[in-house]
Write a structure and sequence with these properties.
Layout: H1 2-13, H2 46-59, H3 66-80, H4 100-106, H5 114-123, H6 128-135, E1 142-144, H7 162-171, E2 181-183, H8 195-201, H9 208-215, H10 218-229, H11 231-246
Antiparallel strand pairs: 1-2
Helix pairs in contact: 1-3, 6-10, 6-11, 8-10, 10-11
C-alpha cells in the first residue's frame, strides 16, 4: 500500500499540479482522472485517503485539504518503508475539476525514452536530476505485465539480462496476464532503499522507462551510478525532489478545501 499512496501523489502532481484532482469521481461536468490509461487498474489507496479525510473532518472541518493529505501520506509511506523524512509544506487547496485528457498525456509512460521522460518532468518544472531521483520511488511496489511488455522483447541485445527477463516472460505468458504483477525491485521489494539503482546497473529494471536510464543516456547513467554507490545521497536528493514536486501548480492559491475528497463542495 505504501507504493500505491506514493504513486497517488505523483500522478496527482503531474496533472495541473498537486491539487487532489486525481481523487475526484466523474460528474456530469467532467470525466475525472481515475479512468485515464496511466491510472486505470494502477492507482489504489483511495479508501485510505477517504478514511483519513473523514477523521480530520470530524475534528477540524474544512481545515486540511485532500491535496495536503496526499503529500503527507506520500512522505509517511516512504518513512514507514525505511526511507527519508522531510517537512511537508502545507497549505494546498483542492481543485474544482479534473481532466482525464491531461492525465492521459502528462503522466510519464512506463515505456518512455529518456528524452520523453525529461520532457515530461521539464513540463512541470522539474530537472533531469529530479527525474532520476524520483524514479527511485520504484524501489517499492509492483507493476502489471502490460506496463513492462516492452522489456520482454529484444533478447539478442547485449544489454538484456536474460536471467531476469525470461522468468518475467513466463509469468506474463500465463492466462489473464493483464492483471498479473511483478515487483519493481525483486531484492528488497518492501524497503525504500537504493537497491533500485543497483538493479538497473545489473539490467534488472522492470520498466523500460527505468532501464533506459542506464542504457540510453550518459548523464542519467552517471546519476544512477552515484545513487547506487551512496544511499544517503539518493535519500537527500529524493526528499528535495519530492518537495519540489509537491509545490507544482497553483494549488496553494486556487481552489477549496473539500469536505469529501471525491466530490467538490
Amino acid at each position: 500500500m505504501a507504493a500505491s499512496l506514493l504513486r497517488l501523489h505523483f500522478h496527482d502532481c503531474f496533472v495541473n499540479g498537486c491539487d487532489a484532482s486525481v481523487l475526484l469521481d466523474d460528474t456530469v461536468n467532467f470525466v475525472g482522472e481515475k479512468t485515464a490509461v496511466p491510472n486505470l487498474n494502477s492507482l489504489r489507496g483511495f479508501e485510505v485517503i477517504d478514511s483519513i479525510k473523514s477523521e480530520l473532518e470530524s475534528v477540524c472541518p474544512e481545515t486540511v485539504s485532500c491535496a495536503d493529505i496526499l503529500a503527507i501520506v506520500a512522505r509517511d509511506s516512504v518513512v514507514l518503508s525505511g526511507g527519508p523524512s522531510w517537512e511537508v509544506e502545507m497549505g494546498r487547496k483542492d481543485s474544482l475539476s479534473a481532466s482525464k485528457a491531461a492525465a492521459s498525456t502528462n503522466i510519464p509512460a512506463p515505456n518512455s525514452t529518456v528524452p520523453a521522460l525529461v520532457a515530461s518532468f521539464q513540463n512541470v518544472g522539474l530537472s533531469l536530476n529530479d527525474m532520476v531521483a524520483l524514479s527511485g520511488g520504484h524501489t517499492i511496489g509492483a507493476a502489471r505485465c502490460p506496463t513492462f511488455s516492452s522489456r520482454l522483447q529484444g533478447q539478442g541485445s547485449p544489454d538484456v539480462n536474460l536471467a531476469f527477463i525470461q522468468p518475467l516472460q513466463q509469468l506474463c505468458s500465463e492466462p489473464n496476464s493483464n492483471s498479473i504483477t511483478a515487483r519493481l525491485d525483486l531484492v528488497t521489494p518492501a524497503t525504500f532503499d537504493n537497491q533500485y539503482y543497483i538493479n538497473l546497473l545489473s539490467g534488472e529494471g522492470l520498466l523500460q522507462s527505468d532501464q533506459t536510464l542506464v542504457t540510453d543516456d550518459y548523464q542519467t547513467r552517471q546519476i544512477v551510478e552515484a545513487y547506487a554507490q551512496d544511499p544517503l545521497l539518493f535519500f537527500e536528493d529524493f526528499k528535495n525532489s519530492m518537495l519540489r514536486m509537491g509545490s507544482i501548480g497553483s494549488g496553494f492559491s486556487e481552489g477549496e478545501i473539500r469536505r469529501n475528497c471525491r466530490i467538490v463542495n
